[in-house]
Amino acid sequence: MLVLASASPRRKELLGTLVKEFAVCPADIDETPHEAEAAHDYVTRMALEKAQAVAEQYRQKTGAHSDQNLTFKRERCVILASDTSVVVDEEVLGKPVSFDDAKRMLRLLSGRSHQVMTSLCLCDVDGEHVQLTNVVTDVSFRSISDVEIAQYWRTGEPQDKAGAYAIQGLGAVFVSHLSGSYSAVVGLPLYETSQLLALYGIHSLEEISHE
User: Could you say which of 28, 30, 41, 83 is catalytic?
Assistant: First the structure.
C-alpha cells in the first residue's frame, strides 16, 4: 500500500497520474526552519520528517496487533512525503500570513529568477529503507507592479501557496521562463517520483495500465 503524507490536492492529483490507488495521511509536524539552516537542508528535512511522522502513525496502528494480515500490510506499506519551498537569496519563502507578507514575497521575486526546491522521501513503515532526493527548478518572473500584486491577492490564490504564487494557476502570468521540472514546482516531480517508486516495486505504467 502506498501512503501519501500530504493533504495537498495538487500532490494528490499529480500522484494519481502515476498510480491508481493510494491512501492519504497528512503529516502534522513543526515546519519552522532551524537557525542558519540551508534551504536545501530544510526542504530535505521536511520531507523526511513528514514521512517519519506518518510512518510512526502506522506503526502505532499495527504494532499492538499480532494478526498476520495486519503485519503483512505493515510490511507492504510505503510512505511518500514531499515538501516544496520557494527560495530567493537563500531565504525560504513559506506561505504568506497576510497581504503585506505576500506583497513582500512577490516584490522579492519580481523581475528576477528564483529557485523552487521540491524534496521527496520514500520509506517503509519501520524506516529501514529510506530514499531522499531534492529537485531544484529555476523560475524567472517578469516585473510585477504593486497594482498587480494587490489584484492577485484578491483572487485568493496566493494565500496558501509557498512564495505567494501558484504556477498552475493565475500566477503563471508572472513566469517568463522555467528551467527544470514543472510538476516539481506544482508540488510533486513526476519523473523523480516514478523513479523512486520503482525502487519499491511500484511501476507507474504497470499501475495505470492494469484494468
Answer: 83
What residues make up the domain containing 141?
Answer: 2-209
| DSSP 8-state secondary structure symbol assigned to residue 161 | S
Left if phi > 0, otherwise alpha if psi is -120 to 50, otherwise beta: which for 194? alpha
CATH number for the domain spanning 114: value is 3.90.950.10
For the question of residue 41 being annotated catalytic, the response is no
Mean pLDDT, to the nearest integer, of 61-76? 53
What nine digits make up the cell of 196?
523512486
Q: What's the pLDDT tens digit per position in 140-172? A: 999 999 999 999 999 999 998 999 999 999 999
Structural domain count, the chain: 1
